[in-house]
Amino acid sequence: MGFLEFLADDWEDLLETTIGHAQLVLVSLIAATLTGIVLGLLTYRREFAAEVVLAVASTILTIPSFALFALALAAGFGLGFTPAFIALWLYGILAILRNTITGLRSVDPAVVESAQGMGMSGVQTLLRIELPLAWPVIVAGVRTSALILMGIAAIAAVVGGPGLGDYIFSGLSRVGGANALNQVLTGTLGIVVLAIIFDGVLGIAGRLATSRGVR
Fold first, then answer.
1. What is the dihedral of CA 201, 203, 204, 209, to 10 degrees?
2. Does residue 171 contact residue 182 with C-beta atoms inside 8 Å?
3. Could you tell me if 44 and 100 are in contact, meaning their C-beta atoms sit under 8 angstroms apart?
4. Is the pLDDT of residue 6 over 90?
5. Within 10 Å of residue 175's Cβ, how many Cβ atoms?
6. Are 50 and 100 in contact, with CB atoms under 8 Å apart?
7. % residues pLDDT > 90 (the chain)
8. How many beta carbons lie within 10 A of that of residue 111, not counting itself?
């Protein structure tokens, strides 16, 4: 069976699996974004605290994905969506956290002093001056994290997580068999297409959420 014939014959399952992959990445990315930004806001003015959270997030990213999925499984989260979500959430934090701290620290101190001189409180300065100026850098971190999670999510299939990894692992387990190559190609190309869509949507959303004077 040719590749296009395989896609036409299996399109319903492919659509469901693709949606599952996108949902897993989206939910994990939202959780990682919230975590990364909050940790960044809490630590960007504290050198030691920032170094500690960055070191922890960097260490998590060095754990092989198979091992982290297995650890989530061994921690009692069972099979399926939950261990996959936990692993992806942890993997997604570093890029967003690092860019949040870098973006906030890159704001010109003279601008901050001017805002404070106009009577703004620390919170007002953060929300109205620092965060808007740092926003493009933070969005870049979110886009990087999304691309990382899109690829790693394929491995979630080892713990029963949803996603296009099912096609890849099924094909690899039947190398040389009927449609094995078609399955691997379907999973791989599906992830590439989803990554391009996610990056494009996040790019547009980030631009719309950025002040015109900062673009």
1. 120
2. yes
3. yes
4. no
5. 9
6. no
7. 56
8. 13
Q: Distance between CA atoms of 92 and 69, rounded to whole angstroms?
A: 14
- Greatest alpha-carbon span in the chain: 72
* The pair of three-digit structure tokens given for residue 210, joined into one six-digit string: 């950025």
CA distance linking residue 109 with residue 160, whole number of Å: 49
Please tell me the predicted confidence (pLDDT) of residue 160.
Answer: 84
User: With b meaning 16 or more CB within 10 Å and e meaning fewer, what string describes 77-91?
Assistant: beeebbbbbbbbbbb
Question: What percentage of the chain reaches a pLDDT higher than 70?
Answer: 98
**CA 71/CA 77 separation, integer angstroms:** 9
Q: Any idea which of 31-45, 88-102, 117-131 has the lowest mean pLDDT?
A: 117-131
> Mind spelling out the 3-state secondary structure of 45-56?
CCHHHHHHHHHH
